[in-house]
Amino acid sequence: MDLCLPGTHDSLSYDLSLTVSQDGLDNLERLSDILHRLSGGTVEILPGELEDFFRLQAKTQQLSVRQQLDNGIRFLDFRLMYESEADAWYSIHFMQSRETVNVYWREIRAWMDEHPEEVVIIWLSKHGNPQATGEDQYPNVTPLQKQAIWQTYASTFDGIMHDSQQTNLFRDSVELLIQRNQRIVTFAADYLEFTGSSNSAIDAASIQNRYDSGEGAFDESVTLQNHLEYFSKASTNNAAVHARGGFTLLGMNTQGDTWQIVAGAKRRFLHWYIDLFHECSSHIRMPDAPHWCPETLLDIAQLSSYYNQITFEHAFVNLNGQGATEFPNALYLDALDVDGTLRTGPYLLNGAKRGGDHATKEVKYAYVDTILAYNAKVVCRASSNATSECDQLKVLLDQRRKKYPLRLWSELSFARHKDWPTVEKTTVSIAEM
C-alpha cells in the first residue's frame, strides 16, 4: 500500500463488438439525441456503420490486455455484465466485447504464468462504481448467476490468487505475495452476492475512486487544477483511507458529451464541417481553439493526455519539495501507448496521421516510468541497506523518463497550448519542441 500502480480505464474497450450491451448505457438521453437527429429517412447509413460509430465513441484503449501488461500496466479496470440473450458475460463499455469475459481472463492468466514475479490487481465491476450492490451494480442478474461467473474467474486464476486470510496488503510486502504465489489481487464490486464473501477477493467498496475531471478535456483549466490539488493532498488522503482499510484510486480518464457525439455523427453521416467548428468551440472552455472538434473518444483521450502529463511531472518533481506530494495506490486513464506512455500529439492511436511538426507517434510522455520512479523513491526511502541498488534504479528510471519527457507546444488547431493553463512551471522540467 506504499506503492502506486499504473492502470488503464475500461481496460477491455479496445475489443468492442458492434453489439450494444443490454445494460451498457450510462445515459439514455445521449443515445436518444443522436438517433433522433439521424432518423427521418434522409441519411443513408450502411449496415453496421451506426454501430461502428457508437463503438468509436466508447473505445478508450488501443492496446490489447496482453500489450497493456507488457507495457507496465498493473491495475486493470475490468467492466463486465451478464447478457441474457447470449446467456454469457461480456466486458462492456456501451458496446459489449467481441469475446466473453473468460477469453480475456485466460489471456491474463497466460501472461501471469509467463511472468512469475509480477503482481496484478484486477477490479471487477459493471460501471466503475465500487459501492453499488445488488440490482444497482448488476441489474436483473441473480446471485447464482454472479457466483457462477465468479467460480469461472476463480478457476481461471486458481493457484495464484491473493488470500486475504493469509496475506494482508497493508502489512505484507510485494515480495511476500510473490513468494506465496498470491499474485492476482481482486477487488470485486457487489462483493457479497458476486463472490459469496470469498477470501480470494476484496470488497471493492473499500476503493476510494476519485474522479475530479469535471468536464475533462473540455474544461482543462479546472481539470488540471483539480488533479494538482489531489496530488498535493494525497499524503493526508492516503493515510485517512488506509486507516479504514481502504485503497486510493484516481481516475484521470475523460469522457465525451452529448454535443460532441452529435457533432461527430453530423460530420460522419451528414458531412458537416464548417458549422461544427462553431458548435464545438461554444462548448470547449479553452482559448484560441476554434477549429478543434473531436470525432472519437480516443481523440478526446489523447488531448487529455497532453494536459495530464503536466500533472504527473508537477507531482513527481515536487515529491521532495515544499508540500511534498504522494501518489494514490493506483491511477487509471485512457489511451495507453507502447513503452508505457501517453500519446500527447495529435497523431491518433488508430493510425490517423494528423498535425504539423508533431505528427509523429513518438510525441509521448513516460506515464509508467514516472510512476516507477515514484515507487523507487518510496522504496529507497524506506530501505537503509540498499543504497547501491537504489542509486542504480534511480539512474535507470531517470534515463527512461528522459526518452519521453514533458513536452509542450502550441498547435491550436488541435487544442494544444504551450502556456495555458497557468502552472508553476518553475517546478516542472519542460522539453521544448
Summarize this structure as a short list of keywords or feature phrases:
single chain, 433 residues, alpha/beta, eleven-stranded mixed beta sheet, three-stranded antiparallel beta sheet, 39% helix, disordered C terminus
Give a verbal description of the structure.
The longest helix is centred in the last third of the chain and has 21 residues. The two termini are 37 Å apart. The protein has 433 residues and is α/β, with parallel strands linked by helices. The chain folds into 2 domains: 200 residues, no CATH class; 202 residues, no CATH class. Helix content is 39%, strand content 15%. Strand 7, helix 8 and strand 8 form a beta-alpha-beta unit.
Task: Give the secondary structure arrangement, pairings included.
Elements: E1 5-8, E2 16-20, H1 28-38, H2 49-58, H3 65-70, E3 75-83, E4 88-93, E5 95-100, H4 101-114, E6 120-125, H5 134-137, H6 143-156, H7 174-179, E7 184-188, H8 191-195, E8 202-203, E9 207-210, H9 220-232, H10 234-243, E10 247-251, H11 258-270, H12 274-281, H13 297-317, E11 330-333, E12 336-337, E13 341-343, E14 364-365, H14 367-382, H15 387-403, E15 407-408, E16 431-432
Parallel strand pairs: 1-3, 1-11, 3-6, 6-7, 7-8, 9-10, 10-11, 15-16
Antiparallel strand pairs: 2-5, 3-4, 4-5, 12-13, 13-14
Helix pairs in contact: 1-11, 9-13, 13-14, 14-15
Please report which band the strand proportion falls in: under 5%, 5-15%, 15-25%, 25-35%, 35-45% or over 45%.
15-25%
Largest sheet: 11 strands, mixed
Distance between the termini: 37 Å
Q: Considering DSSP H and I runs of 4 or more, what fraction of the residues is helical?
A: 25-40%
What is the tally of beta strands?
A: 16
Unreliable stretches: 426-433
